[in-house]
Predict the structure.
Amino acid sequence: AHLDRIAEVDGAVHAFLHVDAADTLAQAGAVDAARAAGTPLHHLAGVPIAVKDVVVTRGTPTTAGSRILEGWIPPYDATLVEKLRAAGLPMLGKTNMDEFAMGSSTEHSGYGPTHNPWDLTRIPGGSGGGSAAALAAFEAPLSIGTDTGGSIRQPAAVTGTVGVKPTYGSVSRYGLIALASSLDQAGPCARTVLDAALLHEVIGGHDPRDSTSLPQAATGYADAARLGGTGDLTGVRVGVVRELAGEGYQREVSEAFARSVRDLEAAGAEVVEVSCPSFEAALAAYYLILPAEASSNLAKFDGMRFGLRVEPTEGPVTAERVMAATRGQGFGAEVKRRIILGTYALSAGYYDAYYGSAQKVRTLIQRDFAAAYEKVDVLVSPTAPTTAFKLGEKLDDPLAMYLNDVATIPANLAGVPGISVPNGLDDAGLPIGIQVLAPARADDRLYRVGAALE
Ligand code: GLN
């Protein structure tokens, strides 16, 4: 049914970069055969899933939304893909994304944008717009995203779906094409909080192949979602982050947020305002740390190891000139912008002034979170400042694009988990999101409070 739906609507939505119906049906058939043979199966066995194209999949093309990886077929599976296969979730295909996960609209994909199913003239968020749009268009019941600065949560907000960025290290990064290794985190995307929790339990847990993987089992999330589903939050202390509200937020986004805060109180939660002053500098710090790490991570795309190789049209064919021709043609404008920015921030004369200062801000943000979590169990804010904007509206204005991430970025800089849950519609009928943040390793609280907000 989902393959049929993809065939019907994906020409207009363009959530997918790659679908192999025969492969999906073979995987589903294997689950059916195992079920018929009486083999004990995982409770999600047979539920199909879409996977963001930044996650490597053995035998299935993986591009990270970049032309430089066109035609590359990975020889191995990411750990999270191994886990999906072991649990029997057939893969529907790979979803569209901003090139190397840089962006907030999926317009930076090397393969054309994804359209928001709520209004095809609008963006589905980014970088994981494909994974979110696939859910909103009912092309997939579950999907996988990655969130380095909001790429799971912001697309969820603008497509009326649920997206979770787990605690840094709680889902293995082995087999993710790295953007910024200290910020990257894969997580579940779904249409309900309970679905996301069930998927998180499949993909989470310790992985010896990822040196930053936490030695912690991924359990208790679905139970927390069921508990939250009762609507009772007695005893839960909720902090409203002063710096993530007010100016710069669309009126309906602020109004819906205020309504939900009152709902939390009505559900028995104790709501207080907290201040996290360093959050004001989070965006600036992120847009130095991320390009710095990305410029280093992307150095491996050199025209020799993976995908595209372009030889210079004239002059000698040296390694350096092949590299320059390949990168010049294979990378899009946003990727080049960030490589240049990151290389500059890391250069000897400017390292302390830019990268060093950004790292200090990162520590201050972590301290703001720690201080807040002494007073409250979770923090709440709008997920994104606005609902889905028009395709093309911010494409030529990188700063306007970066501002979408103002509320999602602090969590990545501190490694703490966050969820975006649908929070009503604006006057134009477009979805709004609300974000819940919890302390590191307390992802269960996202599911409890998230489910209560549903
Ligand atoms: N919009 C952010 C950026 O462009 C988010 C990236 C992400 O989470 N992958 O960096």
